[in-house]
TrEMBL record:
UniProt protein name: DNA-binding protein
Organism classification: Bacteria, Bacillati, Actinomycetota, Actinomycetes, Cryptosporangiales
Matches recorded under InterPro entries: ChsH2_C, ChsH2_Znr, NA-bd_OB-fold, Thioester_dehydratase-like
Superkingdom of origin: Bacteria
Residues covered by the ChsH2 rubredoxin-like zinc ribbon domain: 20-55
Residue ranges occupied by any ChsH2 C-terminal OB-fold domain in the UniProt entry: 59-123
Length: 142
C-alpha cells in the first residue's frame, strides 16, 4: 500500500497544537482532565464529562486496537491519495473510549482486522505531524 506524499492538513488551534506537533518528539499527546483524570479527544478547553477546564495534553503509549475500519477504493483526491487505503477507528489502550479516526499503514488492506493491535507512527507534512497507525510487531489481538 503506497502512502500519500502529501496530505490535507488540519487547522491547528491552541487546543490542538500539542496533538499535531507531538510527533516531533515521537509522542502521541492526548488531553487529560486533571479533575476526573480521564483522557478525551478531540482536544478542547474543557472536559466533556465533568466540565472542568483543568485539562492538558500528555503523552500516551501510542498503542491502540482497531475498533472498526473501511477500505477506500475511490480516488476522492486523485493521485494525492493512492488507493486503496484503510481508514481506521482505533481505541487507545489506556482508555478504549478514546478513539481516533486515522489511517492504517504499512500493511495490505486485506491484513487489517477488528481487534488488531496497532501503534502510532507519524508523518510530517510542513509543521504538522499526522498520527497514523501500523500493525504492532508481534501484536496479539485482544
Ligand atoms: Zn473531567
Amino acid at each position: 500500500m503506497t502512502r500519500p506524499t502529501s496530505r490535507l492538513l488540519p487547522e491547528v488551534t491552541a487546543d490542538s497544537a500539542a496533538f499535531w506537533s507531538g510527533g516531533a518528539d515521537g509522542e502521541l499527546r492526548i488531553h487529560r482532565c486533571r479533575n476526573c483524570r480521564r483522557l478525551f479527544h478531540p482536544p478542547v478547553g474543557a472536559c466533556f464529562r465533568c466540565r472542568s477546564r483543568d485539562v492538558a495534553p500528555e503523552a500516551v503509549s501510542g498503542r491502540a486496537v482497531v475498533a472498526s475500519f473501511t477500505v477506500n477504493h475511490h480516488p476522492w483526491f486523485g493521485p494525492m491519495y493512492p488507493t486503496p487505503y484503510v481508514i481506521g477507528l482505533v481505541e487507545l489502550v489506556e482508555e478504549p473510549d478514546v478513539r481516533l479516526t486515522t489511517q492504517i499503514v504499512d500493511c495490505e488492506p486485506e491484513a487489517v482486522s477488528i481487534g488488531m493491535a496497532v501503534e502510532v507512527v507519524f508523518e510530517q507534512h510542513e509543521d504538522v505531524w499526522i498520527p497514523v497507525f501500523r500493525p504492532t510487531e508481534g501484536g496479539a489481538p485482544r
